[in-house]
């Protein structure tokens, strides 16, 4: 089970469509993120980074931000780490997104971040290399969720932690109002500002397709994580999955 953009026939074509989609919206990605989320995205990255403060304060720690896009999760991790920042690496398979991340990093202050072009399902790192792997709004786009979780578990050291921040589907009356916004308003505004038809209709469809928190926690457990939890953010519009790799 994984992302399936319109027209994708198998995991390879799904991954190619996802990469093409993000490459096409890269120039307007940050603007759209902030406009469409009313800037709440900044709060979500900040909260997710705060959750891993204990690891980020360890100068010898190795941190990987997967599907880093234009880098905002990685920047939030660096800010939380402070002056004794560990090694933080952002990985993405869209060159255009990484170019933006790298340009933004040059303007920012603090310890250096590194960027690498890589597929989250085939990471070029040895087993047990990282102490923390995060992914913000990227994991949902993987063509195979279980393979993604297994690859995260593989590159984590025993006792290392995983944090997956992604959209959810809030319930109740708020959920009903939010769905009108998310399925009708957001795709229309996103299409106008990005100038690209498709990606912003794919977003609500991909969230609908994504496993529920209970199912996702079960999949994390089966992939080798313990102490798995899901913390809803902003009434469940987003939420953080956390797990610890079996020692
Ligand atoms: C919605 S963006 C999120 C970017 C960033 N993490 C943020 O919070 O704004 C999703 C990113 O995941 C990347 N991505 C999707 N599938 C990937 C894969 N299999 N390997 C590497 N990157 C992937 C896309 O290229 C895109 O940059």
Explain the overall architecture.
This protein is of the alpha/beta class and about 250 residues long. Helices cover about 45% and strands about 20% of the residues. It is built from 10 helices and 7 strands. It has helices spanning about 10-25, 30-35, 40-50, 55, 70-80, 95-105, 145-155, 170-195, 200-210, 215-220, and strands at about 60-65, 85-90, 115, 130-135, 155-165, 225-235, 240-245. The protein has a 7-stranded mixed beta sheet with strand order 3-2-1-4-5-7-6, with helices on both faces. α3 packs across α5 (about 70-80) and α8 (about 170-195) packs antiparallel against α9 (about 200-210). The relative contact order is 0.16. The model has no long low-confidence stretch (mean pLDDT about 90). S-adenosylmethionine binds near residues 68, 93, 121, 137 and 142.
């Amino acid at each position: 089970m994984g992302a399936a953009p319109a027209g994708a026939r198998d995991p390879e074509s799904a991954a190619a469509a996802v990469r093409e989609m993000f490459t096409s919206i890269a120039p307007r990605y940050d603007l759209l993120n902030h406009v469409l989320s009313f800037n709440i995205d900044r709060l979500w990255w900040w909260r997710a980074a705060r959750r891993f403060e204990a690891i980020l304060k360890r100068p010898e720690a190795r941190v990987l931000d997967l599907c880093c896009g234009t880098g905002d999760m990685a920047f939030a991790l660096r800010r939380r780490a402070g002056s004794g920042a560990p090694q933080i690496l952002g990985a993405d398979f869209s060159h255009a997104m990484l170019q933006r991340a790298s340009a933004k990093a040059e303007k920012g202050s603090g310890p250096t971040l590194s960027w690498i072009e890589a597929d989250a399902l085939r990471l070029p790192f040895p087993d047990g290399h990282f102490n923390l792997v995060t992914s913000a709004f990227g994991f949902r786009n993987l063509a195979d969720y279980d393979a993604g979780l297994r690859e995260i578990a593989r590159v984590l050291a025993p006792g290392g932690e995983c944090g997956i921040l992604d959209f959810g589907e809030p319930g109740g009356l708020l959920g009903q109002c939010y769905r009108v916004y998310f399925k009708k308003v957001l795709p229309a505004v996103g299409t106008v500002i990005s100038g690209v038809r498709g990606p912003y209709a794919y977003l609500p469809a991909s969230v609908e397709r994504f496993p529920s928190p209970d199912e996702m926690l079960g999949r994390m457990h089966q992939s080798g994580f313990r102490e798995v939890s899901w913390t809803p953010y902003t009434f469940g519009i987003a939420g953080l999955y956390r797990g610890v790799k079996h020692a």
